[in-house]
Amino acid sequence: MADSVTCPFDSPEVATIQARDGTRLRAAVYKPPGTGPFPVLFAASPYRFDNNGLPASPQFLWRETGPIDFYVGQGYAYVHLDVRGSGRSEGEFDFLGPKDQADLYDAIEWAGAQPWSTGKVGSIGQSYFCMLQWWMGIMNPPSLKCIGAHDGLNDLYRAGCYHGGIRCDFFPGYWWHQNRVINANPANGQEPCHQSRDLDQWISEHPLHDSFWKERSAFERLAEIRVPLYSSGVWSKHQLHTRGNIEGFQRAGGPRKLRMSGVPNAWAAAQEFGSADFHRQVFLPFYDHYLKGLETDYSGRPAVEFAVRGAAGMFQADTWPPAGVEYRSWKLGGEASGSVASLNDGGLSADRAVAAGSVGYDYPQPGWVNGVAGFGPKGPASGFDPVRRVLTFTSAVLEQDLQIAGPVKLVLHLSSSQPDTEVFVKLADQFPAEGAAAAAGSNPASEVVTRGWLKASHRALADGASADLAPMHAHDARELLVPGQVYRLDISLEPTAYVFKAGHRIRLEIVNGDSAITEALWTHLYRPDKRGRDTVHYGPQHASELILPVMPAR
Fold first, then answer.
1. Domain locations along the chain
2. Pair 406, 315: CB distance under 8 Å
3. What is the pLDDT of residue 12?
4. Is 326-550 the same fold as 13-301?
5. How far apart are CA 259 and CA 334, in angstroms?
6. pLDDT per residue over 393-435, tens digit each?
7. Which of 284, 385, 389, 390 could serve as a FRET partner for 14 with CA atoms 20 to 30 Å apart?
8. What is the pLDDT of residues 224-264, one digit of tens each?
């Protein structure tokens, strides 16, 4: 087969698919030359197939089909469905709801029954495409033979809309505004789709994990997936998708493998998935094995392959977390690290007891100018310094490399002057300070390794999760705080794999908000009613500690 063929992206073959409720859905069909039959790759999204001629570049983050022309050149038919209420499909947008789920079944069975189809269908696509793939597996249409789930969440409440019970602006803000624009202004100028759904209001009406979220949560039904699954994730997407690929691998009921990539950010992840070389190496052997019956290297791949950010090569394991990981505790304390300018400059100790104490901060801080971010030591001229006006707890300089891989947990003892508060946590790699910057009073460079969040009134753990190193909260009721009383909060930071280099420090950052400066698309807007004082407690009686999954030496 040729590496690729020219696909008519501006005027594809458009098929009409009748959903079981009578709604007419439409899909673009791209086929190799000839009559076939061909195995089918099936993708679905709200981003409309009329935009597939645009480059899969960071400018168009939602172009997440993968390289259609490459797969057509490999002998696959490619079917891209506009989900109901988007593109050329009828109906109202359902946001992964029951109507979307039924449509996926009907459309896959349609694809499997076409005269140009072998009857074998595999799923493909990144992000929202992947979010729909979990449901394809759960719906289990007979024609579906495998799932190539790349970079997609499966718990819409916890991973996307309410991080730790805290409302995130990504889906109701940036994402929905973007989606309405690209539907109303397609690249080919044909059949604009004007979406009237008020997603912001819809999400705001469901602040708890109620039936609205449960019927949209593939996470709760992942064990129903029986077809072979290749779950391929990205460490840098921990504000959205990372946990979904790990949970998909851990919970699915059929044959499955996990691959976690080390690309540095969402923009690099978009470029990676759009690359034919990536698909030739990673996904094509998977599809060729299950849809064409070919012997490929997929069969011999380990159950788990993962990058460790900062380390070379890919690591292999039989399970996730990998065997041999040792969970070690770093205790929060009041001893100054002397390495960073913050509200407190506390310590993080792995090898000695910590004296009893506490540290608090008032909010909003007068130095905050965009969320919780403020300017550097010389005001606006020195740029933004997101660390200067938050609580930090920093380790001593590491004497040797420290590699971690697995879940990360923070046990935090907290009191507040308010009946509720929010906790935003970042685990960061603090680099050695450079001379000129240190002399000028600037904070050392750093890199965020992972994040976690929790609304204090949502601290109740889900059934069976109390002893878990990746605690999951029920989010089904609010339990308000008694002002001044100390509470234990178990906070799960997103899973990761990372190496802290010798000469660097481990740093924990704690505050009650974030900023568009640091979070880009995933901001949690700082509300006017967030006013008060929070206090972190530590020492023998209130042992606040960070628990890291430390890998054995390679």
1. 13-301, 326-550
2. no
3. 87
4. no
5. 40
6. 999 999 999 999 999 999 999 999 999 999 999 999 999 987 6
7. 284
8. 999 999 999 999 999 999 999 999 999 999 999 999 999 99
Amino acid (1-letter code) at residue 179? N
Phi, psi of 110 (to 5 degrees): -60, -45
The DSSP result for 97-165, as a single string, is -HHHHHHHHHHHHHHHHSTTEEEEEEE--BTHHHHHHHHHHHH--TTEEEEEEES--S-IIIIIIEETT
- Give me the residue label for tokens 């550097």: 376
83's tokens: 């989900």
Task: List, as one string, the DSSP characters of 484-504.
Answer: T--EEEEEEEEEEEEEEPTT-
| CB-count burial class (<10 Å; 0-12, 13-18, 19+) for 531 | exposed
Q: How far is CA 241 from CA 146, 245, 478, in A?
A: 20, 7, 26
If you write DSSP's letter for every residue of 308-336 in order, what string do you get?
-BTSSSEEEESSSSPTT-EEEEEEEESS-
Residue 192: DSSP 8-state: -
What's the whole-model pTM score?
0.96
Question: Any idea which architecture 326-550 has in CATH?
Answer: Sandwich (2.60)
Identify the residue whose tokens are 């759904």. Answer: 197
Residue-averaged pLDDT of the chain: 95
Question: Which 3 state secondary structure label does DSSP give 434?
Answer: coil
CATH number of 13-301: 3.40.50.1820
Contact (Cβ atoms closer than 8 angstroms) between residue 106 and residue 46: no
Closest to 176 in 3D by CA, of 323, 32, 47, 304: 47
- The residue type found at 443 is N
